[in-house]
Amino acid sequence: MSLFYLFAALFLLGTILLGLVRVLRGPGSGDRMLAAQLFGTTGVTILLLLSLALEESALVDVALVFALLAVVAAVAFVRQHGLPEPPDTPTHRQQPESAKPKEPNDDR
């Protein structure tokens, strides 16, 4: 069974390499951040699989630290860049001239 865990960890390492392509070529910072989150969650999973395969309980502690670091990185990214709003939200829609509120006319 430990051989299965090792092969699963190797497969997940391949997905990290594919995610690295997205980090390098990603069209936006959101895509890059999602790929970095992929690194965090996949890294935690790899460490947990290795702890099962090698019967090393210290790797579970390292995986928990990586999980906390991934959350901190995501929060730091959102605080730095803000959450993107979809283009069809009211703040991004262009209002026609007739729908804009008229300013009061103060002719005193």
Structure description:
It is a single chain. The chain has 108 residues and is mainly alpha-helical. The chain has one domain (2-82). Helix content is 69%, strand content 0%. The protein has three helices and no strands. The longest helix has 26 residues, at 29-54.
Would you summarize the structure shown here?
The protein has 108 residues and is an all-alpha fold. The protein is built from three helices and no strands. It is elongated.
List the SSEs and their pairings:
Blueprint: H1 2-25, H2 29-54, H3 58-81
Task: Specify the biggest β-sheet.
Answer: none
Return the domain count: 1
**What percentage of amino acids are in beta strands?**
under 5%
**Residues in helix, %:** 55-70%
Order of helices and strands: HHH
Structural category: mainly alpha
List the defining traits of the structure above.
3 helices, 108 residues, mainly alpha
